[in-house]
Amino acid sequence: MKLRFWDQPYRLDKMTLKELWTAYFLHPSIQVYILAGAGCAYASWRLADTIRPVVLAAVLVVAAYPFVEYLLHRYVLHGRMYRWPWLAKAWKRVHFDHHRDPHDLRVLFGALYTTIPAITVITGAIGAIAGGLAGATAGMAAGFVVFCIYEFVHSVQHLPYQPRNRFLKKMKQLHLQHHFQDDHTNFGITNPLGDFVFGTHNPDPKNTRRSPTVFNLGYTGEEVARFPWVARLTPDLDEVQAAREGVGRKKPGGAKRA
């Protein structure tokens, strides 16, 4: 296997679990998260007078994570960021490309310029409540660890592999429903708690009608005509044709980073 991550296509639907482990640790963003998490943990250890704020910060971050994951996924990633030219490129990279080609690992992982600020601000703020600067750095360390777990679990959900664990198996089913049947339900990726609380949990694929926006998140037809910036950034989309005929699933092969 080549050492440079971007030299390979990394089609999750054609990978084994063992191949995913290798690709996962080769991915530059995972390497950055590991280093950042270690740095934050070291800073917290140096700053803390006692272990209490460190532990409390980590516990609060882990407890809050299912709701943070849900709210960001539902209201930010499935929002209308494409309507602003200065947000169009980020939205295309972090979610539009993934929904158009769900099994391409290169667009499954979040972009560092979006994930790093989100992780540091959200988990740092939660940790600061627990214990000032020591708590903030501990919260960020926990945030990077949890996000690494999230990225791996999300990747496994797109493999031709069934987890042995019943909970993970169910989460995979719910996530694939979100991608291929109804993009308006099952926003939780590692945990369904947010879906239960906010009423978007749908465990029944047999009685779920296929949403027309599973592969375009609503960016299709008239929306393309009014807000063309994402289409102009997408090599396989013709702006005029997409506005007239709509946007469908990307044909596998040739996916590129944005």
Automatic annotation (TrEMBL):
Originating organism: Limimonas halophila
InterPro entries (UniProt xref): Fatty_acid_hydroxylase, Scs7
Annotated keywords: Endoplasmic reticulum, Fatty acid biosynthesis, Fatty acid metabolism, Lipid biosynthesis, Lipid metabolism, Membrane, Metal-binding, Oxidoreductase, Transmembrane, Transmembrane helix, Zinc
GO cellular component assignments: membrane
Protein name stated in the entry: Sterol desaturase/sphingolipid hydroxylase, fatty acid hydroxylase superfamily
Gene Ontology annotations of biological process type: fatty acid biosynthetic process
Domain of life (superkingdom): Bacteria
Predominant subcellular localization, coarse grouping: endoplasmic reticulum
Cellular localization per UniProt: Endoplasmic reticulum membrane
PANTHER family linked: FATTY ACID 2-HYDROXYLASE, FATTY ACID HYDROXYLASE
Transmembrane segments: 21-45, 51-72, 107-130, 136-156
A molecular-function term among this protein's GO annotations: fatty acid 2-hydroxylase activity
Record's bilayer topology term: Multi-pass membrane protein
Coiled-coil portions: none
